[in-house]
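tool_call: predict_structure(chain=1)
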Amino acid sequence: MIRFENVGFSYDGKRQILKDISFEIDDNASVGLIGANGAGKSTLIRSVLGFLDFSGKITVDGTEVTKKTLPEIRKKIGYVMQNSDNQMFMPRVVDDMAFGPKNYGMDKEETERRIDAILERLSISHLKEAYNHKLSGGEKKMASIATILTMEPSILIMDEPTSMLDPYNRRKIQDVIVSLPQTKLIASHDLDFICDTCEKSILLYDGEIRGYDLTERIMRDRDLLEGCHLELPYRYQ
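tool_result:
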């Protein structure tokens, strides 16, 4: 579970980027994080990952996010970045997937078992020995998800997972995300994608939560969305 209690943040001590944010995400829930540019989505994500010195309290599976607990927190959370090039830094897919387990002291046999099992689960076993610089955008995104899953996190945080993907690869990523059992927080401007992957959604506007409800209820509310500088998803127009 992720819990925010009266969380605030300001980069300059003047303008508040997050304003008294409070919400809970239950275990195994899939929650969308939506809002126009500048609403505070990236700041919220950076806060739960422990990158920012926020006010208030954030807990992950009952552990408060502090400088002292960051190693424990980051074992629980898998963060899939918007730009896969920032995440895939080793020569081959298998090298990236093995990097985390090796650094946590996992033996070679268990690391190989995890890698093969995850590649098979995502139907990308053929990419195991592939060089990252030769992957397509869709392949690289799938490989970046595989890299995170190797660490067996209980929570997945994804930032724009369909950014710059064609419709075919968007559908593949969508199907994979829906199949994953982890608790998920997914930030995206693709509201139709959020409709397909998240039971609930958090709507941010100007650093405040303007809605936290079933995704369909939020996505059908034209006045609410337009008041937050968003448009109805295509399916509800």
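agent: The first strand starts at residue 2 and ends at 10. Proceeding to next step.
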